[in-house]
Amino acid sequence: MQEARNLLFLSAVVCIAQTSLAQPSVAQLPTVQVTDTQAEAGSTLSLDAPNSTGSRLGLTARETPASVSRLEAADIAERDLTRAQDVAVRMPGISEAPAPGNGGTSLIARGFVGHNSVAQLIDGTRLTVAAGTVTYPFSTWPMESVEVLRGPASVLYGDGAIGAAVNYVTKRPGFERTQREAFLSVGSFGAVQGGVGLRGPINDVLAYSVYLDAERSDGYRQFMDVQRRNYALALAVRASRDMSVTLSLDGGVNDDARYFGTPLRNGVLDQRLRRTNFNVSDSVVKYNDRVWRAKVDYQVAAGLRLRNETYHLTTARHWRNAEDYSFSTPGTSVDRSDYLEILHDQEQTGNRFDATFDGTLGGLKNRFIVGLDWYRTRLVHTNNSPYGGASAVDPYNFAPGVFISPVPTIPGRASELETTALFAENALDLNREWRLVAGLRSDRMELHSTDLRRGVNLVKKYSPITGRLGAVWSPSEALSLYGQFGTGTDPLSGALSLPGGGNTFDLTKGRQVEVGAKGAVPAVRGEWTVALYKIAKRNLLSRDAGNPNVTQQIGQQSSTGIELAFAAEPVRGWTIDANAAFLRARYDDFRELVSGALVSRDGMTPTGVPERTASIWTTWRFLPQWQLGFGARYVGESQGNTANTTKLPSYVVLDASLAYEHSPNLRFSLSVKNLANRDYALTGTANTSWLLGTPRTVQLTARASF
Fold it and tell me: Is 535 exposed, middle or buried (0-12, 13-18, 19+ CB in 10 A)?
């Protein structure tokens, strides 16, 4: 199989090289003009713009039989969103579950939580999740847009995407015009951010892009100071009118906040401790990510396009913290435990090749893509397991102390995952109103997991096949109805680990049925979408009813829901973008062992899943140069345990902004996040500790183009 991959890639390169030599010089070719499709200002829908995440065929959101959303760079800047995941949670049905252990980036969609169920991609490439953690990207500065495909996305992106796929689309070199932009921001808690972006042609053959930004903050708690540096560099070579090569280097260094939560006293937040951080003084949370990529795009003929992407990721992560805090029984001290030191040394090398055919089938318009996706990921997991260390501290006269561990930090596990996938997708226009879209993907996965301390190596192979079949009916330009059936797979305990320390369990499997409608309201320059779905995920680990000590892969959970979205400009200068999601998530077949007894959790809501979410953002240009913005985001309560006996409370976060356009090239904005300064729990163990969200912050930003 490896030889076949190499041969396929080599053949494509040779074909490209031969054809490019036969072309006239670039200087003799006509200039290519590109026209951008612009959505209404502030819209997350963009129904008539191509959406690269919902399909690899260049379909628009209206043409795709699935739920897709998008927010572009101008709208991200308008809302003063600087963190990548903050854009995603403005989309319908997306909420967050951040923690330092998952990189602060974990998302929730359609009843499924975390990186093993909600994939995050960079320009359509999935970076393998290591021990439930993804740490890149963080900054929005180099992004052209953020796109979300909700529901199973395994047919497009492989394992680990039953809930959704979030795609961060980066800015790349262009030959059309030169763009230069910069921003500088100062804010609460000593926050300073700045960035510069340059892109454009060097000559008829070369174009470049350089996006750099940095951030520092003292933080609103002790040990929450941060320093971040991000870069996105690219060089495009237009060897001929029909062929281009883009080389890029993206990455970031993130010295992040060392905050793992606030302990509750008898299940209640003590207001005196809202800004206390119970970590140790020499704590560490640090990430260093780097991605090299080479893309080749070749338009062989009018109906044939070849693309190839080769990439290499390296990432180094380091945590050293006391991570668990709880009040003692008398309530006079806080007991600290789980003194963890963990390091990830990860690298991933991959290649994706595809060929797109645009023509006819039986006289009907047809678009078809077929491709081969291969990648190999290696991870060395270093830690101080079994995790020990403990201390008791005075919560009201806190002395942090230092990290202590009775166990040395040494390499514990090495994993290697190699995946080869063949994928195909097809869109057939039956007539002007009906379109069929189908996709199929076959993966061959082989995981080697080695216990470096015991010298034990286990091997597990997976062979999932996933697919999607949908239809779109567009009786008019203002209305499209669609239906879809799709399947997907998720790992039980992470793509690079084996659940239960053995190799007997398979991937979980999911299937979804979805119907929906998308339309336009020309009278208010508006767009709207409605989606109804049901997802069932089976092959979860559950206890055997006949023998409680035996764990079997027989469990199931499901979710049924509806998502609504509306974006419009009712009158010139006033825009509104709103969405809401309602779902019912349940364990259908799940039993666990509690104090030696088998307990059924059937009918319970999975832990950490909010069943109600909503978001709104509206702007009003009340004077030619002045614009006022207001936003609200609601996240419903979620269960704190599988028994549903404790809950994380719901919350509403309010944001506001005031912007002044001094000139077409210079804009100032004053934004306030968490306007009501509310304390709210992003994640937690419900009655023991909460990871609290950010308090009120004020940010003054200047953005310029030159």
Answer: buried
- The chain-wide mean pLDDT, for the chain, equals 91
- The conformation of residue 85, written as its DSSP 8-state character, comes to H
pLDDT-derived band at 37 (thresholds 50, 70, 90) equals very low
Query: CB 117: neighbour CB atoms within 10 A?
Result: 25
Q: Give dist(CA 657, CA 676) in Å, integer.
A: 14
Burial class (CB within 10 angstroms; exposed 0-12, middle 13-18, buried 19+) of 150: buried
Better-predicted residue by pLDDT, 462 or 23: 462
By the 10 Å C-beta count (0-12 exposed, 13-18 middle, 19+ buried), 1 is classed as exposed
Of residues 663, 640, 664, the one with CA closest to residue 650: 640
**Do the Cβ atoms of 541 and 527 come closer than 8 Å?**
no
Lowest mean pLDDT among 25-29, 154-158, 215-219, 504-508: 25-29
Contact 183, 193 (CB under 8 A): yes
Residue 15: enclosing H or E segment and its boundaries? helix 2-22
Helix (H, G, I), strand (E, B) or coil at 403: coil
SS3 51: coil
Per-residue b or e along 222-241, where b marks 16 or more CB atoms closer than 10 Å to that residue's CB: bbbbbebbbbbbbbbebbbb
Mind giving me the DSSP string for 538-577? EEEEEE-SS-TT-EEEEEEEEEEEEEEEEEEEEETTEEEE
Nearest to 204, CA basis, from 16, 34, 32: 32
Place of tokens 């009775």: 406
With residues binned 3-state (H G I as helix, E B as strand, rest as coil), the percentages for the chain, rounded to 5, are 10, 60, 35
CA dihedral 138, 142, 145, 148 (to 10 degrees): -30
The pLDDT tens digits of the residues spanning 246-285 come to 999 999 999 999 999 999 998 899 999 999 999 999 999 9
Question: Residue 180: CB partners within 8 Å, gap ≥ 6?
Answer: 197, 198, 200, 705, 706
Query: Do 482 and 516 form a contact (C-beta atoms < 8 A)?
Result: yes
Contacts of 153 (CB under 8 A, 6+ apart): 119, 161, 164, 165, 488
Answering whether pTM is above 0.85, one says yes
Beta carbons within 10 angstroms of residue 10's beta carbon = 10
φ/ψ of residue 140, rounded to 5: -90, -10
- Give dist(CA 166, CA 150) in Å, integer: 8
Closest to 483 in 3D by CA, of 467, 472, 494, 499: 472
CA angle 331/337/342 to nearest 5° reads 155
Residues 87, 91, 96, 101, Cα dihedral to 10°: -50
Indicate the burial class of 293 (C-beta count within 10 angstroms; 0-12, 13-18, 19 or more).
buried
For 75, the token pair is: 């709208």
Average pLDDT of 475-483? 94
Bridge partners, 241 (sequence order)? none
